[in-house]
Amino acid sequence: TGGSFLPACVLMASGDALMWYEPPMMRHLGFKQSTHAPERSAGTFAARVPTPGVIFLVDGARWLVMAYRGDGRPTPETPLYHAPTLNTYEDGSICAGNVKTPASTAAERIQAWSDAFWRSNFTHANYDGVVDYQGDAAKLWQDARDGQFGERFPDLVLKPYDRTVGQYLETW
């Protein structure tokens, strides 16, 4: 069996664990009003909005997302931040709901994992204090929809995760 070429976005590949990053960009996201936690929901809408740089980590049992500041490739010294996205937990775990996730964590499935996350319907924040923003994550995404930030995600609202990429990998 041969190996596969690792794309430049891969930060770590070990066994069935894979970590990659996606730089900040404009994305088309869908939001759906939550019946489970309506007070933490942004409502129902679809819009092209700025998103921060994110780092995904998948293995056989876990699927996580964290944020980072800046545009370049993260290094082991890059500080991590809580992902400002809805449907994620404080530890970075993603609530997949009824999203169909890829069966493989091979590097060639990165786009499928990314699509499974970004093309889902974001319903509600899974905890209070997701971001440092008046009105929390729901209001942040409504304001992004309304063009409050232009084409650049406001990185200053990201809350520190209190670890760097390297420290996180050491505890993985």
What does this structure look like?
- This protein is an alpha+beta fold.
- Helices cover 15% and strands 28% of the residues.
- It has 3 helices and 9 strands.
- The strands form 2 sheets. Strands 1-2-5-6-7-9 form a 6-stranded antiparallel β-sheet. It has a 3-stranded mixed β-sheet with strand order 4-3-8.
- A hairpin with a 2-residue loop joins β1 and β2.
- The longest helix has 10 residues.
- The mean pLDDT is 94.
Q: Spans of 5+ residues with little confidence (pLDDT < 50)?
A: none
User: Total strand count, please?
Assistant: 9
Number of helices: 3
> How can the largest sheet be summarized?
6 strands, antiparallel
Distance between the termini: 27 Å
Secondary-structure element order, as H and E?
EEEEEEEHEHEH
Arithmetic mean pLDDT: 94
Give the class from helix and strand content and strand pairing.
alpha+beta
Overall 3D form: globular
The Rg value, from CA coordinates, equals 16 Å
- The proportion of residues in beta strands is 25-35%
Biggest β-sheet: strands ordered side by side in the sheet: 1-2-5-6-7-9
Approximate helicity band: 10-25%
Secondary structure layout:
Blueprint: E1 10-14, E2 17-22, E3 25-31, E4 45-51, E5 53-58, E6 63-68, E7 79-82, H1 110-118, E8 121-122, H2 136-145, E9 160-164, H3 165-171
Parallel strand pairs: 3-8
Antiparallel strand pairs: 1-2, 2-5, 3-4, 5-6, 6-7, 7-9
